[in-house]
User: Which sequence fits this backbone?
């Protein structure tokens, strides 16, 4: 299968590209820079130059593909609303291009905060609709094409997709701990995050491309809910720093932009995903990665 992948040179996307190539697929990856293009071509993939704002370029790549995996997102927290609108426009254009073709369209999504009081399941719909909502309401936009000749699948990734070289949320928390001289958590530290190893997430995406039915939601979740105080303790133990509670009203001052996410309870089950895809996570746990130096700071 010829698969167009946006975000193909990113943290999750590069692992997905490797997994797809291993499965015998041809990968065409969206590349914004010469560096990204070279990295893709070195793997054996084809680089397609463009960006999420170049809608005509996205449409042409989608037209020439047997399926699309949309993993890119503008992680610009200074203009998160603008990033959501760009996401909505990009997804809309690719879906319109694929309409009536019965081709798969998989897109990255998150575990929807506030969608349910308990662990989020694959049956729980996202509460976000429209271009001005979180991530541009792209999950519901995509799933709405299930009856329009597209096989849309929502890929819900855990808030921490970890592994050696991770520069995401856990890496940011580790850097803040070193700067503050203590690993912090918010309040009583009872809020939880789901987690998955990068290699497991990539395998799930490849299986979803091949097996997930139209309109389904797949959960890249290996550990359903790790308390934030335990995440902080693991970081503190690795750095040799104490663990401290940060009052909720001081979270933004202490953690910066990531404070709003670290205080969320983002738990989920992946039981349906495992059963449907025959997927079993086998990679290291988050705490194993922290202890083994996945978040070692330079110097």
Assistant:
């Amino acid at each position: 299968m010829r698969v167009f992948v946006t975000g193909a040179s990113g943290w999750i996307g590069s692992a997905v590209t490797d997994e797809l190539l291993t499965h015998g697929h041809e990968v065409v990856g969206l590349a914004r820079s010469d560096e990204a293009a070279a990295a893709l071509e070195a793997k054996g993939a084809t680089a397609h130059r463009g960006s999420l704002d170049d809608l005509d370029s996205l449409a042409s790549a989608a037209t020439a593909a047997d399926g699309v995996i949309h993993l890119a997102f503008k992680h610009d927290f200074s203009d998160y609303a603008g990033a959501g609108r760009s996401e909505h426009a990009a997804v809309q254009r690719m879906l319109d291009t694929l309409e009536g073709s019965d081709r798969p369209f998989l897109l990255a999504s998150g575990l929807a905060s506030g969608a349910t009081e308990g662990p989020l399941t694959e049956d729980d719909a996202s509460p976000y609709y429209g271009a001005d909502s979180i991530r541009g309401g792209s999950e519901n936009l995509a799933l709405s094409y299930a009856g329009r000749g597209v096989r849309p699948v929502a890929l819900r990734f855990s808030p921490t997709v970890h592994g050696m070289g991770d520069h995401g949320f856990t890496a940011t928390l580790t850097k803040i701990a070193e700067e503050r001289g203590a690993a912090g958590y918010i309040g009583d530290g009872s809020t939880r995050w789901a987690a998955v190893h990068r290699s497991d997430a990539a395998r799930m995406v490849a299986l979803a491309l091949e097996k997930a039915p139209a309109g389904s939601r797949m959960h890249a979740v290996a550990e359903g809910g790790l308390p934030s105080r335990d995440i902080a303790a693991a970081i503190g133990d690795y750095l040799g720093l104490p663990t401290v509670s940060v009052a909720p009203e001081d979270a933004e001052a202490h953690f910066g932009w990531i404070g709003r996410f670290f205080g969320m309870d983002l738990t989920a089950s992946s039981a349906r995903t495992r059963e449907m895809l025959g997927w079993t996570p086998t990679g290291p746990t988050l705490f194993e990665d922290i202890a083994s130096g996945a978040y070692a700071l330079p110097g």
Q: What stands out?
A: The chain has two domains: 2-159+196-220, 160-195+223-291. The two ends are 44 Å apart (CA to CA). Residues 102 and 256 are 44 Å apart (CA to CA).
